[in-house]
Amino acid sequence: MSEPQRTPRQPPAGGSSNDLAYEPVIGLEIHVQLATATKMFCGCELSFGDPPNTHTCPVCLGLPGSLPVANARAVHFGLMIGLALGSELAPRSIFHRKNYFYPDLPKGYQISQYDEPLCRGGRLAEVRIHRVHLEEDAAKLIHIGSSGRIHGSDASIVDFNRGGTPLAEIVTEPDVRSPEQASEWLKLLRSTLRQLGVSDVNMEEGSLRCDANISLRPTGSSELGVKTELKNMNSFRFIERGIRAEIARQEKVLQAGGTVEQETLHFDPASGAITSLRSKEEAHDYRYFPEPDLLPVAISQEMIDAARADMTELPADRAERFARELVLSPESAQQLAFRAGLADFFEAALAVQVDVPAQTLANWVTVELAGRLDDGDPAEAHATPQALAELAAMVASKQISVGAGRQVLDRLVAEGGEPRAIVEAEGLAAIGGEDELAGVVAAALQANADAAARVREGNAKAIGPIVGYVMRETKGRADGTEVARLVHEQLGS
Amino acid sequence: MSDVLSLSAAQAADAIAAGSLSAQELFEAYRARAAADRAAGEEGLNCFTWVAGGDQAGGGGANAPLGGVPLAVKDLFCTEGVPSQSGSRILEGYLPPYTASVVRRLYGAGATLLAKTNQDEFAMGSSNENSAFGAVRNPWDRERVPGGSSGGSAAAVAAGLAPWALGTDTGGSIRQPAALCGIVGLKPTYGSVSRYGMIAFASSLDQAGPITRDVRDAALLLRYMVGHDPCDATSLQFPHEIELPSAARLDGVRLGVPNELSGEGIEAGVLDAFHAALERARELGAEVREVELPHAPHALSAYYVLAPAEASSNLARFDGVRYGLRAENPTDLLDMYTRTRHDGFGPEVKRRIMLGTYALSSGYYDAYYGRAQRVRTKIAEDFRTAFAQVELIVTPTAPSVAFKLGEKTADPLAMYLNDYCTVPMSLAGIPAISIPCGLSQGLPVGLQIAGPAFSENRLLDAAYALEQSIGFDGTPARV
Amino acid sequence: MIVPAAGRWRSVQCATVIERDEVLHVARLARLALAEDEVEPMARELSAVLDHVAKIGELDLDGVPATSHVVDVTGALRPDEPRPCLPREVALSQAPAVADGGFLVPSPQA
Q1: Where do the domains of chain C lie?
Q2: Is a pLDDT exceeding 80 seen at residue B63?
Q3: Which of B88, B126, B131, B149 is catalytic?
Q4: The whole model's pTM is what?
Q5: Which class for C15: exposed (0-12), middle (13-18), buried (19 or more C-beta within 10 A)?
Q6: C1-62: which CATH number, 1.20.1300.10, 3.30.420.40, 1.10.20.60, 3.30.365.10?
Q7: Which chain C residues are within 8 Å of B349, Cβ to Cβ?
Q8: Does residue B355 sit in helix, strand or coil?
Q9: What is the pLDDT of residues B82-116, one digit of tens each?
């Protein structure tokens, strides 16, 4: 929201170079549009994609004499977010005015929060939360460029439909250490917020926006370097790429002996370029002061209880329950609990009550199923919890091999259906008699004499081609452990 | 005709209800006089920025409590479809799409819109010489100011061009012009009247209030103004009904006189009238004693940090984007902003925007705004302490009688001093009323009575008793 | 503090002097154009007022909390229920310049 002048960023020439290794220190600033019915400070309905300026009123247009009144449900959602993140909820929270001029800011100030935010502290997985606060969104500026020139300069039109939409701003501590971690953690945050039902959290639609604060420091140092702010990354992939590009840029600067300047940067995903959004004036002086038109919000126990009651089990609690009650490994528990879709699928599969240990079922979900879903929601996949449970049971009872099981899962995910039917149709049943398998093993040993010799000499790895031969011959229906056993038996090793 | 105009608003309302007076006739009588003043330009008092057309029947529900009595409304109240400019060029001709809550409430009680009154630009001023639409003149002496910022409302009521009017008070803008024009003006407890639809000056201080010929009218109008409004988060439910006053005496009432606000810097003639009023109060049975408001001398300084600071933010919306003035042929966005605001705001408004911006800016917040907010806490504490010893506090309303047009315009600080006695009550958010208590040099002197939050009924009773006893004659000002 | 002296104002030497640069900086923050011949008078007037309001710096305010709201109540919140919006023509009716259903302004990018 500054007055940008784009200049490409180059590392400064000269200075001494160094061979230090640097580690990135990354903090994230996330804006979440809340899924309330009306705006933060007025009763206009939220809209998306409607004709410009059809959802406005004196308040969100900033007409003279208008006054804001805070949306109770936005506060409610804010409390839910705070509870989900394990934050401290302020007993009393106030709004502040953040003053600056821009056409998408009708009052010439944004009503936000400053030193008494709704929530402080907390964490989500390995990243600590600094604060969560409420504020109103700006309007939309549509650059119409030379097609609509006015007075000889380019023009924009302002659409106030979006202006005033409730936002929760979530700021993390600088605990993130890599672009991949940033992207992964954001996905975690997104699924948590989606599970809470407080937002659509859709990056393409703008209901989830993320900026990153990035600095480097010599590996092992505990001091913080100069940080830059990177904006305009509106997908997880771009966030990763943008952060990676900025880390590379800062590294180059530092290694050339230069210093990083504190500034706001823009990432262009198309070109991969990082450009400065340095405005014509120095850093904004927002002249924060308490919003006199709004009274402090007292957060009562009733409000907190109501927020808690509106939440399904929190991810952290769910993970703890999985570990405790189902004796899942902490990793599995976390992996499931922090992706609500997976956890729901898992619990549904568990409810089918097949004779499979919970951990085994969990592995099927977190490794095999998740791996085939590519971030998608299992609820939308064709494979059903019922089918997965049955599949797991079939493998556990050795009716089919693990390999065959994976093939079945491929079909389930792609087309749905029932495991038993697929096994029959594809002929994937495990090799029946020992004789049949022993015969194939014998043939395999003959066909791979060199490998056989090396196995007999004690080279365990050489068994690979032999097992591979058997698998091919049996179309994966053989059980790998059984094959190995027979090989050693026949070789006498 | 003139009989009708000599009726107070309450009397007129009664007469209309009784059927002995036609609401249309009353409205037309006032409308014609208001229109005449507007047409008279320099020769008139220049009280009005808009007057209802002759075609407007103006008849409010005769059965409603304020049935049919016309009301003049300060320019800064949004009145749908009627210019609402807050005395500024930057809003010249602005027609809001909605009406201020308090005005709607009064319409609901039967009031009808007579006219919009002239005022200091964005309510910043104590003389009504800061209006983009020309200065207002005091009907007692047309070479003199009526006070401000509600100068138009006060002059209109004093001159008998409107039966009553709405004003707003931020640091004294109802009380001081009421004093200079020899009429009654009341600033209610902060939060008791909705601010929704009032073009803002300083949000934590602005309050709408009645400007009337007498105390009973003030009570009647206030009665239908107060009440919680869901559109204003700072508005409160008044804990009880506003009663029409009836007290004849002040027995058992302790009146506190703060030395800090009743000695140094007050004109001799004003002090004489003030002391005479105190004597009357004693005759009516009141006990008059000294109280201390140790931080009152700092109130003006705190006010001239806080009010401009809030104003600098409230006036940021006047940027030429959505309404109001936009500078011609701007070369770019920055030029549009800066030139629009340069051309649209008058000198006093610009000064206060600059002052306020400075006081909030990085590095200065703690020394100015932060400190001023803490001075405010001390002032509120001072009043609480004083009100443990007395029921009401009395002071002169203004340090002087009406001064000549142009006398103080060269020195902003001299002008700010006019608010010396009224600003402490604004900072504390407590109610205060000004009633005329005498003349000095032939010009009216105002007596200010202040009470704790929500003490309006006691305030009105005391003011009424004194008013009846003093028997001030306001007719010399009638046009 | 500002102390009235027998109703007349005594002109005082200003201790605080706002420099021209600072005036221009503040004017820029406030988006207020100042003509060349307006800068000096503004500096003087601001200095005079600031000189006096600065007297609040003399008070001992240790431990005194700030009053940001004189009303000692906590906030009413609004139920999340839709209210009617303004028709678009009304929203745009007072606009100095309009295009494509929006408020037309010089582009910030320009």
Answers
A1: 1-62
A2: no
A3: B149
A4: 0.87
A5: exposed
A6: 1.10.20.60
A7: none
A8: helix
A9: 999 999 999 999 999 999 999 999 999 999 999 99
